[in-house]
Design goal:
The chain has about 270 residues and is an alpha+beta fold. The chain contains 9 helices and 5 strands. The protein binds ligand 0O2.
Amino acid sequence: MEIQLWRRILCPYELAVRELTVKFEHIIKEYKLNDLYSPIEQVRGRVKSVSSILEKMQRKHIPLERMEEEVEDIAGIRIICQFEEDIDTIAALIQNRSDMTIKSEKNYLKHIKQSGYRSYHLIIYYTVETINGPKEIQAEIQIRTMAMNFWATIEHSLQYKYKGEMPLHVAERLSNAADAIIALDQEMSSVRSEIMDAQNSSMNQSNLIKDILMSIENLYKVANKREVEKIQSEFLRIFQMRDLQQLERFHRQLDIIAEGYRAQSVAF
Ligand code: 0O2
């Protein structure tokens, strides 16, 4: 097939990968804006290379005219999360969306692959708008924890290096590493609520500091410069104490000061 034709075939898949990546990144943003823990940590996307598509078609005896139906992962999205529990939350998020329809799932967490590979895969139908009208394509979404991703990335490069003929001692080490990853994910899940609390409180603190700095900046526009300088050094003093409650109190005081200036400006 000519390269130009490949480009035309892959073009809607490129659009789908870009759109889906933006949509999942936006979910992270929405959680953060609402001061909530995001079950999605990171999103990556790729369009399968022509050589990978051809290799898969050869391996699975897929004729060229069936390529778009049978090679389900031309568009691929990988969603990385922190905890194994997040995987179900993300799958439910996808299931409830009106712009993605789940065609099938492969649960390599329940049915671990012989290699030791663990991940949760969904094949979805997704429609992109092209200059010729809407086109429904398939995309594969892989959902896995950071630890699972670490293992899969290393194993994938070793598979590539040994071209399917991995020496036994390497395969054994990978299998041991896969067991260690299972233990690590379980261990992280057992301290999940503590880790999430720590992350939430550090997120709250950074949002609070952002708000305080913005209030001080706004005061500069309306208040006496010396007074704002005093407020600023008071902020630095409280900031060094690393006490969230004190910071919250200080923020409330700033609101009252700002309110006073607003009232004054209305009165004049
Ligand atoms: P790439 O480079 O990731 O795009 P098959 O391709 O025959 O293995 P199938 O039925 O099409 O499998 O789908 P399956 O099993 O869900 O696997 C598709 C993708 O999952 C693979 O894509 C890998 O990304 C990943 N995967 C599956 N098994 C393993 C494994 O044992 N180790 C690692 N590291 N990844 C795996 P591709 O096509 O290999 O390519």
